[in-house]
Each structure stands twice: as C-alpha cells, then as structure tokens.
C-alpha cells in the first residue's frame, strides 16, 4: 500500500486539498491552509477490506423515549442559553475572544452545577491549579465541590474522566490539549480536531456533559477547523466589547434548544453577574432628542431587547469615504446605503459613515434595517427622531419594507419602557389596542417623506 501522504486542510472551512496554496478554492479564504500529518485511521486512510463490522441495533422513530433529563445550574442566564438546563452526554463548545471571560463563566457555571448536586471536574490547560483556585476564591466559589486539574495531556485526562465519570467536565481550552497519537503541535488543526473528537466520543459513551472552551481567531472563527462546530451538540459564543462590562452568551447552534437564545452578564469585580432583565440595558441616557440616534425594538432569541443605534455622517476628505460599523454587519450597512441612494435618491458618496450599537450589543436581525436607515438619515439631515419612538422593519432591495416576526412582543416591551410611538412596515400587524402612536409605511421612500420631509 502507498504510504499515506500529508494533506492540507483549510482552517476556515475544513476543506482538504492535495497541496498547499495561499487561497482555499472551497471558501476563498486566504492563508488558512495548513499541513496535516497523515491520518492513521479515519475516512480515506484505508479501504474497508474484507473484515466485516458487527450489526448495529436499529429502532423505530416511534420508540417512546423520555426527553433528556435536564439539570439546572441555578445560573438562569446560562441555563436559558443551554435550552433549559444541561443535558447529560451532550458536548458543548463555548467560543470567544481571549480575555472576554470564558474561564470565569465556566468556573462559575461548573460551581453552580456542583452546588446543584452534579459532580463536576474542571480541567485547565492554561492556568495552574493554584491560579484557578485563587480565581475561585475571588469569585466566592471556594466551597463549591468542583474538582480541579491542570493538565494538557488528553490521554491522561480521558483516563481520569473515565475513572471518575463526572456529570460535567469543563476542558479549558481545546486548543491547549494534545494527543500523543497525533504528530502535530498542540493548537494545530489536527490536534484540535482529534482532541475534540475524543472528548465528544467520551461524552456520548459515558454520559458526561463535556464543555469545550475554544478561542476565537481575529476573523471571529473558533481557531481550528469548523469541523469542531459540527461535532458538538451546542455551540455558544461569549461575546462583548472589551471596553464594556456587558457580556452576551449566545447559542448559535443547539440540538437541545432554540438557537439564537441569549444570556446577558455583567463583568464585575466579583466575576460575572447575571442581568435578568436586559431589555433596557442597551439604551443610553436619552432625555434630549439627538440627531443620528434611533431606538430599535429587537428580539434576541425569545427576548425583546431595545437597542440604541447611533449614526454619524460627516463630509469626507477621502476619495474612498469610511464605512465604520460596530455591533452590526458591515454588508448590511452597505446594502441600506445602496438602497437609500438607488431607491430614494439620497447619496452618501462623499460622506464618512459611522454606525454603532450602544452598549456593546451585536444586532444580527434584518429587522434592524429600517432603524439603521432612520439613524443614517437622521444623522445626514441633522434632524432628530423623537426620543420616545421605536423603529423596526426589514428593507428589501426594491426599497419595500417587509414585516418582521414577533411584532407584539417588541411593542409590549417598548411600551413597558415608556415608549409611546412606533414606526413599522405597513404589513406588520399592529392592533389598535397597543395604545401607541403607530406609523406604518409601505416603503423606504414613504418613510423618508414622512420622517424627514421628502427631499
Ligand atoms: P477570563 O475568564 O480569564 O477570560 P478568558 O478565559 O475568556 O480568556 O477573564 C479575563 C478577564 O476578566 C480579565 O481581563 C479580568 C476580568 N475579570 C473581572 O473583571 N472580574 C473577575 O472577577 C474576574 C475573574 C475576571
Ligand atoms: Mg481562559
């Protein structure tokens, strides 16, 4: 048999290439292809040959199996994002920028589960046990029955976990773990993938819920191949702006609950504190009407969150004016600028455009389009939107406004927080019983005419 040769894997999309190149053909990313040692097993390594496997037990779809028993940690924001508690034998990946608070969150999480009666093990590959202990003391968790280890050798860790059979095991972080069967260095794609595979199989076999911590690269991807995200049941991202104290734990994939659910925390001197009612958190002080500032009535997972969007539009000395966005998708901003220009005749060429979501929230909903357009126009025309009005609606490329989901939820929250007016697409179903001043528009042109006087 021919000697297996090294393969080249794209760390962004996981595509395998036969030779190295600067750009991945599959996903178009640059400088993401790395060399991997040949696999001794796994797909493609050897043909199946004559040896027969053993039969697999098949069952019906209708087999009555109880839903997985869940354990709540008592850390409500964490439980919510998990879909209502921890599911045994599940594999969870928690990704986030270095220093955002992943270790703090999971130490607090593990302690909460331990106090709720689960046996918990926390393995740190980045800090010494003494450091973790010191942190636990600072967080007031020293009495929680969590057992610690500082280790990076996965073979030893698996042997220990197998002997202990804990209910939950936290591995902090997957990038520091290494297996002696894989030749490449810890943190390499091959190591991360093999380590994750071993840990996920352990979770499935032994019923332990395994939580993997993963660092995120500059491009916002969990370092190592996307494959890790596919392997686990649940992918959570811990996000927030470094300068802000608020942190959001977001489910981007969850086999056991709704995706896009969020939990909100505040980083304090004593660790992460839960923010149980975050809807008003992302509103800054807004007594005076200010041009460029608009309140968007958003939904994060199942919860309404009101967020302030701030725009600044200023004449630019540059031949290619700046487009700077914090907390929103840059592509979405470009689209809305293009629609304003093409459908409403309002050009932004020659202007620098800055757009910011206050408080460090990230808004992913297309429902924010209309609020973005309003903030941009308000900043450009220097006309303030009344401060007691919320805005939502999706903008299509034709300039038409599309209705968005959960209208009632958005309005209820806005009203609760003292907003008296709403601007929304015509087709959004808003009953008279809301008691708010409702202005509904079919398209962006009508909106511009209504809010800023047609020009
Ligand atoms: P950490 O959990 O170590 O981040 P990660 O594991 O994601 O790299 O958190 C590091 C930051 O959190 C650090 O900059 C200090 C801050 N922090 C607090 O503000 N309060 C605290 O009680 C703790 C433990 C950390
Ligand atoms: Mg850490």
Can you walk through the features of this model?
With 455 residues, the protein is an alpha/beta fold. 24% of the residues lie in helices and 25% in strands. The chain contains ten helices and 21 strands. The protein has helices at residues 76-81, 102-115, 129-138, 154-164, 189-206, 227-231, 330-344, 369-381, 407-416, 444-452; strands spanning 7-10, 16-17, 33-36, 91-96, 120-124, 146-150, 168-172, 209-215, 234-239, 246-254, 262-268, 271-274, 293-300, 303-315, 323-326, 351-357, 389-391, 394-395, 401-402, 421-425, 437-441. The strands form four sheets. The protein has a nine-stranded mixed beta sheet. The protein is globular. It starts with 6 loop residues before the first strand and ends with a helix. Magnesium ion binds at residues 102-103, 126, 172.
């Amino acid at each position: 048999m021919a000697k297996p040769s090294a393969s080249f894997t794209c760390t962004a999309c996981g595509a395998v290439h036969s030779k190295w190149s600067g750009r991945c053909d599959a996903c178009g990313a640059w400088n993401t292809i790395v060399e991997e040692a040949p696999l001794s097993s796994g797909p493609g390594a050897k043909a199946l040959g004559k040896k027969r496997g053993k039969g697999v037990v098949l069952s019906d779809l209708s087999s009555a199996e109880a839903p997985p028993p869940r354990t709540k940690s008592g850390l409500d924001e964490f439980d919510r994002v998990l879909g209502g508690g921890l599911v045994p034998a599940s594999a969870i990946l928690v990704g986030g920028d270095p220093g955002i608070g992943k270790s703090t969150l999971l130490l607090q999480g593990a302690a909460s589960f331990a106090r709720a009666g689960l046996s918990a093990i926390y393995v740190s590959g980045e800090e010494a046990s003494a450091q973790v202990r010191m942190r636990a003391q600072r967080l007031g968790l020293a009495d929680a029955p969590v057992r610690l280890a500082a280790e990076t050798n996965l073979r030893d860790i698996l042997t220990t976990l197998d002997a202990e059979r804990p209910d939950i095991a936290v591995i902090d972080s997957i990038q520091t773990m290494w297996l002696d069967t894989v030749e490449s260095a810890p943190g390499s794609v091959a190591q991360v993938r093999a380590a994750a595979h071993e840990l996920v199989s352990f979770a499935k076999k032994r019923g332990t819920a395994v939580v993997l911590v993963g660092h995120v690269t500059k491009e916002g991807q969990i370092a190592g191949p996307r494959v890790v995200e596919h392997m686990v049941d649940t992918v959570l991202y811990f996000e927030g702006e470094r300068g802000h104290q608020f942190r959001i734990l977001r489910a981007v994939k969850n086999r056991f609950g709704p995706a896009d659910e969020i939990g909100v925390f505040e980083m304090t001197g004593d660790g992460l504190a839960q923010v149980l009612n975050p809807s008003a958190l992302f509103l800054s002080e807004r007594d005076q009407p200010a041009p460029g500032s608009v309140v968007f009535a958003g939904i994060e997972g199942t919860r309404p969150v009101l967020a302030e969007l701030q725009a600044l539009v200023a004449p630019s000395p540059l031949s290619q004016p700046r487009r700077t966005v914090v907390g929103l998708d840059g592509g979405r901003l470009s689209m809305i600028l293009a629609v304003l220009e093409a459908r409403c005749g309002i050009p932004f060429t020659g202007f620098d455009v800055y757009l910011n979501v206050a408080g460090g929230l990230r808004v992913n909903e297309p429902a924010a389009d209309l609020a973005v357009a309003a903030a941009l126009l308000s900043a450009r025309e220097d006309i303030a939107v009344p401060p007691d009005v919320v805005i939502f609606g999706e903008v299509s490329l034709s300039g038409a406004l599309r209705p968005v989901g959960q209208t009632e939820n958005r309005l209820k929250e806005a009203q609760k927080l003292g907003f008296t007016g709403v601007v929304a697409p015509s087709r959004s179903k808003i009953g008279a019983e809301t008691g708010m001043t409702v202005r509904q528009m079919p398209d962006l042109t009508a909106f511009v005419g209504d809010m800023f006087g047609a020009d």
